[in-house]
Amino acid sequence: MPLVTDRQKCAHLLRRFGLGASEAELDFYAKNGLSSAIDLLLNYETVDEAFTVPLEVFKNAKQNRVPMPGLVTWWTLRLLMTRRPLQEKMTLFWHNHFATSASKVTAPLVMHQQNEILRRNATGNFRKLLSEVSKDPAMVQWLDCQQNVKGHANENFAREVMELFTLGIGHYTEKDIQEGAKAFTGWALRRTTDPVTKTVTAEFIDRPLRHDSGQKSFLGNRGNFNGDDILNILCDQPRTAEYLVWKMWSWFCYPNPEPALVSRLAAQFRQSGLDIKALLKAIMTSPEFYSPKAERAIVKSPVDVCITTLRQLGVGESVGEAVRGTPVEAFPRARVAPAAGAMTAMKAMGMWLFYPPDVSGWKFGQAWISSATMVERMGWAEHLFGQAKGARFRLQVPTYAILSGDPTPEGAVKTLISAFDVQLKPEKVKFLVQAAQKTSGGHIDAQNAAETASAISRLMFASPEFQLC
């Protein structure tokens, strides 16, 4: 379906830069047209985030500290509840860009600290974001910066800051890596361990006595550079803007953007002083973003599958109403079951938050789809509607309330197609209706609503059309 009306364009915008185009969110963002929707999405600082759940809620009662699964659940709950979808979507993008894994950085509070840096700078200035992430204790540990000392330079961070964070492969030399590594010598971290809970925290420190203060040649520049100098030189490279535009467009719009498009957006990005919000607005207002090539062209990530479907069914808001403002000691842990269930399902689909597979992050796009992950995507329908046998977490979706407006097989199919924002051909819709008819016996009631919705959704989630957003 061509993107003709503002409402259609708003739905496309929310599928990519939000956490799905639920009917309620689409009504909210599209009420004053596309331009207003873009401004609402971008200027999320004016919106009450509506997430007040402290990390302490997820403490292990025996150990009195937050374990890594608790931190993962906390972020999943935030994705589910937030009213600032762009901020969380960009936090996820930067988490993949500056991929740091708890497989090595095992201290939950240290990983949480990095997550907050990404959120705080999600649409800010890239130069500031790069500086803060580079000095973040999780990154320092992840890329062995504390082992980088004068006379024994460790090249891990110097290599990855160019290959993955700024320039991309082929735009620097081995000599640049060696000289850059010398500039970063002395960057380290200081750990603190609570004597009672054994909780580990950390802070960045610069050790001048371990820094190589000699002359360095880097990307055609020569001087007594330190780490900050190298980061600034990298941000000043036109290639950095091009690389970031290419990666952001590929993540949010469609793969392999045209060189002319990248050049145009990169020029605007540089002119803005590497303002991320300015780049996002340039993308969101570009005609290419609303072209047929961009429509339904991105393979859904596990977050797009699990978090989005829950939000589309109103689960995020219902969980929020139940837990918002609740003191830690009275927090209803059972109400976070949807987040815990989504976290487990996303892991099975190949996306364990805080655990990217390597320093290059998750391989997105078609890489999300395999025979194993398709089984999990189909099975998500059963978890979603409480039909999964032996499931540890019951999601408590009010299924009959969702379907009661038209409790016929045809009505249920129409309702769920609309709720999940899927475009299906008539012959595929017919198969869904047949499944609903067989499961419900022709009439949907409170007793068979969940089973019927699960049968419909399992077929829908198996379709190629559902995989694209």
Task: Jot down its keywords.
469 residues, mainly alpha, 2 domains, two-stranded antiparallel ribbon, 22 helices
Summarize the structure.
By secondary structure, this protein is mostly helical.
Q: How many domains, as an integer? A: 2
N to C succession of SSEs: HHHHHHHHHHEEEEHHHHHHHHHHHH
Helix content: 40-55%
The global form is globular
Biggest sheet: strand arrangement: 1-2
Strand content: under 5%
- The DSSP helix count reads 22
Pick out the low-confidence regions.
none
Characterize the largest beta sheet: strand count, sense, and whether it forms a barrel: 2 strands, antiparallel
**Radius of gyration in whole Å, from Cα?**
24 Å
Number of beta-strand segments:
4
The separation of the N and C termini measures 13 Å
Mean residue pLDDT: 95
Instruction: Decide which structural class fits the backbone.
Output: mainly alpha
Can you characterise this structure?
- The protein is mainly α and 469 residues long.
- Helices cover 51% and strands 4% of the residues.
- The chain is built from 22 helices and four strands.
- It has helices at residues 6-17, 23-30, 34-42, 68-81, 85-97, 108-120, 126-134, 137-142, 156-163, 174-183, 227-236, 238-252, 259-271, 276-284, 302-312, 315-323, 337-348, 371-384, 399-403, 409-419, 426-440, 449-462, and strands at 187-193, 200-206, 216-218, 221-223.
- Helix 1 (6-17) packs across helix 2 and helix 7 (126-134) packs antiparallel against helix 11.
- The longest helix is centred in the middle third of the chain and has 15 residues, at 238-252.
